[in-house]
Design goal:
Length: about 120
């Protein structure tokens, strides 16, 4: 079961709704709040901006990719595979293209770890 579905069943809301509430409480940019709230359902992105849905779709695909590859620790061991396939097709990515992204993603994760370690030291 995908994490967001389990969250809704157990707690009555999911992390996207919590992200929206926190974003509103912290008075974040409205566009960022919409991305937080729709990163699993980019087709529900309720804005007329041209960049809104594609940006939400790219975040959803990246989220699914790292979860399926068990990169990082997002906690979603069972992402929506149908949504992942749909998003990959939307971006023109097949299985081979997705697999070819893995080395670059792992390299970027290592760069982020170095950056975060340096930031912690300062």
């Amino acid at each position: 079961m995908p994490l967001d579905q389990a969250e809704r069943e157990v707690m009555g809301l999911d992390h996207t709704q919590v992200g929206r509430m926190i974003g509103e409480k912290w008075q974040l940019n409205p566009g960022l709040i919409k991305l937080l709230a729709n990163h699993h359902l980019p087709d529900h992105y309720d804005d007329n901006e041209e960049t809104g849905e594609p940006l939400a779709a790219s975040i959803a695909l990246a989220d699914a990719f790292v979860n399926l590859r068990r990169l990082g620790s997002a906690g979603n061991l069972y992402p929506d595979r149908q949504l992942t396939r749909q998003l990959a097709r939307q971006w023109g990515l097949g299985k081979q293209e997705m697999a070819s992204l893995l080395p670059e993603v792992e390299k970027e994760i290592e760069r982020a770890k170095v950056f975060l370690a340096v930031a912690r030291e300062t």
